[in-house]
Write a structure and sequence with these properties.
With 261 residues, the protein is an alpha/beta fold. It has 12 helices and 9 strands. Strands 3-2-1-4-5-9-8 form a 7-stranded mixed β-sheet, sandwiched between helices. Strands 6-7 form a two-stranded antiparallel sheet. β4 (98-103), α6 (113-126) and β5 (127-138) form a beta-alpha-beta unit. α3 (17-31) crosses α10 and α10 packs across α11 (228-240).
């Protein structure tokens, strides 16, 4: 994980093509559940602060926690954001200290269900009663779809990696192939809701972030998002199918939103 993120490509990834669609849709979904300004938000696994930045610009107080020193250093430069090194499974924060929890980074890097549940429980512990958590996961068939969309099956190493991921959820790129991400866990849509419930959250709802639009070429995604009319057409379509169970598995990323009773 450290080797992958030390390449310092995350900001660029979320600023173009499918990554830009992921960012725009994640922001749209999160904004539906945000409390009124000003509120206290913890961004767990927040990376370089891509989401923390716009949250702080809205007027929220944002504390970012990440396991990568490079990310923490970058996020610390954002006005209104406090960034510290930390572990999603054991947060250095008091009980019920935040109005909202954003958790876009940790769950796919935690390879066992025990570790993922520990992160969910910590998110619940630091959240105030009635508050919401929004947690991102990578969908089980994400690497398979990437291979189809980008012709990655031309690499013979991609076959066994995808086959393994589909069976057990563990995405294991060959040694040295950092462009294919790192050892991570890809969720089935129902798994993240089950984890949230087991951790004590109520009424989890799973949303497809990119939905079937991830099949569009990167340049086409950028063109549609840049044009106000086409952008609204695209977003309207994604909203229409965002919770349909038959569509969830097509999306590259999922967002699970739940609340603390």
């Amino acid at each position: 994980m450290q080797a992958y993120y030390e390449q310092d490509r995350e900001d660029g990834r979320l600023g173009a093509g499918g990554g830009l669609l992921e960012f725009v849709r994640t922001r749209e979904l999160v904004e539906r559940y945000l409390p009124a300004v000003p509120s206290s938000i913890v961004d767990i696994g927040g990376g370089t602060g891509v989401h923390a930045r716009w949250l702080a610009e809205l007027g929220h107080r944002v504390d970012l926690v990440d396991a990568v020193p490079l990310h923490v250093a970058r996020a610390s430069e954002i006005p209104g954001v406090t960034a510290v090194l930390g572990d999603a499974r054991k947060l250095d924060a008091a009980d019920a200290s935040y109005d909202f929890v954003l958790m876009c980074g940790p769950l796919y890097h935690l390879l066992t269900v025990e570790d993922r549940l520990a992160a969910w429980r910590e998110a619940r512990r630091v959240l105030k009663p009635g508050g919401h958590v929004a947690a991102a996961t990578i969908a089980r068939f994400s690497s398979l779809h990437d291979a189809l969309f980008r012709n990655l099956f031309r690499y013979k190493e991609f076959y066994p990696m995808v086959a393994s991921t589909v069976v057990d959820g563990h995405h294991r790129p060959p040694e040295g192939r950092h462009e294919w991400f790192t050892h991570t866990y890809f969720h089935r849509p129902e798994e993240s809701a089950q984890e949230a419930i087991e951790a004590g959250f109520l009424a989890p709802q799973v949303f497809a972030i990119e939905g079937s639009a991830r099949a569009l070429p990167d340049a086409e995604i950028e063109a549609r998002l840049a044009d106000p009319v086409q952008r609204e057409h695209l977003m309207w379509a994604l909203r229409l199918m965002e919770t349909d169970p038959s569509v969830l598995g097509v999306s590259s990323h999922l967002l699970t939103v739940a609340h603390k009773g």
